Model the fold of this input.
Amino acid sequence: MLLETHRAEIETILSRYDSRRSAVLPLLYLAQDTYGYLTEAAIREVAAILDMPPTDVFEVVGFYTLFYNRPVGAWVLQVCDDVPCCYLGAEELIAALKQSLGIAEEQTTADGMFTLQRVKCLAACDRAPVVQANLDYVYDVTPERVNALLANLRARAAEARQRGVSGRFAEDFEWGPDGALVQIDRAAPYQPRRFPAAPPPAPPEPEPVPEADAGHDRPADRKASPL
Ligand code: FES
Done:
């Protein structure tokens, strides 16, 4: 079926590689976006197109967290819980998402909109905590921003369904000064995270004067030694 519906795209993908099996990742993404997730039949179909043993393709699907072998929501929310994100509140963020969505990790909301997952480092540690929605990156997500994030994604559900969960058309988002999500221009230069300016250091406290030096016992006031 993939060959019937996407023959031209598959031939373009295959033409990029010397070896057919090298095209396994893009073909799996194509299959995932076509069927919504990677069914056993879809995995076998990709294996047949690439002349690969199906077991090899099943292994690839099992290895990567961006391949789903069961139904998922229109948006798959992957929250990084690696060390830098945890230092900046990833656990609190996951708890807030679970509460707002009414689901546990690895579950999908009843309306089929969101699946929630934990993942390891998403390579955007300087903008932690990070959420990957399909493959759109959203930076600096705090528990207070969860409702705005979910509202934004719900409003873009049709776009997500049209693009597919694989995120082959990923974008980056950050928070504007008014608290709304803003898409980052792809051509914009990289902007590191901006931290609030540190307050100026307090003036040093005056050193306490040792009792022996207080007042009358300074050298100029001492009596001459009788020796
Ligand atoms: S630790 Fe979260 S993006 Fe690297």
